Amino acid sequence: MTKKRNIVVKIGSALLANQELLTPRYGFLQRLLEDVAVLRSQGNNVILCSSGSVALGLRIIGETPESAGISDKQAAAACGMPLLLNAYKQVGHEFGFEIAQVLLTLGDFEDHRRFLNTRNTVHRLLQAGVMPIVNENDTITTEEIRVGDNDRLAAKVAQMVGASDLIILTGVDGLYDRNPDEPGAQFISEVTDVAPYMEATRGKSTLGTGGMETKLQAANMAQEAGVTTWIAQGETDRPLSTVLDGSRRATKILPHPNPLSGWDSWIANRLQMAGSLVVGEDVADALAEGDRPIRREDILSLDGDFTRGDVLHVYDNKGTEIARGLSDFTSEELRVLANNPDTAAEQLLGYKTRGNVVRANNLVMLDTRHLLWDAPEALGDG
Ligand code: GLU
Predict the structure, then answer these.
(1) What is the tens place of the pLDDT at every residue in 17-63?
(2) Residue 302 is part of a domain; what is its CATH number?
């Protein structure tokens, strides 16, 4: 038996909720799930990352997209989620399959144990032939601990399940080299490096290029994990198959030819920065040679409050991000080590340690193909 392909589909709120009435758009759901049924019958697993809970819940709590504040949106998500899932369930039954709700938070991706636990649950659902519908648990997440956009959430899910494809269904037909409303804007049908387009979409009004930045970030994460990303308009018959068979316009973002291993991809693909380190140029060069840990004496400065097992972003002293790696120390321990370079680590910490901050096999060098994060404001505070 050949292995089933896992296809992750991200669906934006505007496709799911009627803009004026803020009610479910059953016509769209029917077209979507009819096509999901076709893909499933061809032996694929489909996993949805669905937005729409906030939009569908607003009316119930007497708010509008314009009037709602953060706590209104949290309450709206609680009201909208059952409505959204009920709509999926009804339509799913029409096409003969069951659906399940998987509500996640940032920690379910950033903490490796929780990441694996979530993965097991999703695999169990797929094994039972049930289609998982993933969304962020907006009701309980606050600004600091949320993913925020379902584009990157979907990319993390694609990485989690080892997807072949990530299809992002949206209101535009794909990526343009500039705001599509500008004269002369060129459609981009295939992308290998998303970086040049990040510049073109960054800092523009969200109108026209709406949300393209997070879509490209998502695509970059997917590339690293060996997943092909498609950005396509959702408003059509057979919205998924026509993308996969190339019969309609979509932007295809190619997977990297040498994708990272599951472990390295988990380390490299971050949603939030727990902390960061700065190392000197000579250390940066030595790390690039490979198979070398980051040692206590390599650290010029550090930033953030992190715990053992958190992923740190590693910068050179010019502020360019060069690597990401798992910390073997808490930020508190690391500050004690860094501030007392002449005292043995064992004496400072009270336990036996080699003083390797990031072990070589927990360190991923970011070559030019990966989108780099800006260093925190004050490049390290020692
Ligand atoms: N989780 C949000 C919702 O269900 C949507 C976030 C997004 O669309 O990126 O409404």
Answers:
(1) 998 899 999 999 999 999 999 999 999 999 999 999 999 999 999 99
(2) 2.30.130.10
Residue where a domain terminates, one of 264, 292, 325: 264
Q: Which atom of ligand 1 is nearest to the CA of 84?
A: 4
3-state SS record for the chain: CCCCEEEEEEECHHHHECCCCCCECHHHHHHHHHHHHHHHHCCEEEEEEECCHHHHHCCCCCCCCCCCCHHHHHHHHHHHHHHHHHHHHHHHHHCCCCEEEEEECHHHHHCHHHHHHHHHHHHHHHHCCCEEEEEECCCCCCHHHCCCCHHHHHHHHHHHCCCCEEEEEECCCCEECCCCCCCCCCEECEECCCHHHHHHHCCCCHHHHCCHHHHHHHHHHHHHCCCEEEEEECCCCCCCHHHHCCCCCCEEECCCCCCCCHHHHHHHCCCCCCEEEEECHHHHHHHHHCCCCEEHHHEEEEECCCCCCCEEEEEECCCCEEEEEECCCCHHHHHHHHHCCCCCHHHHHCCCCCCEEECHHHEEECCCCCCCCCCCCCCCCC
Q: How far is the CA of 153 from the centre of ligand 1 (A)?
A: 10
Instruction: Quote the domain boundaries for residue 71.
Output: 5-264
Q: Is the CB of 137 under 6 A from ligand 1?
A: no
Binning pLDDT at 50, 70 and 90, where does residue 144 land?
Answer: confident
Ligand 1 centre to CA of 51 (Å) is 4
Distance between Cα 50 and ligand 1 center (Å) = 7
Regarding the beta carbon of 54 and ligand 1, being less than 6 Å apart is answered: yes
Is 136 close to ligand 1, i.e. is its CB under 6 Å away?
yes
Q: Whole-prediction pTM value?
A: 0.92
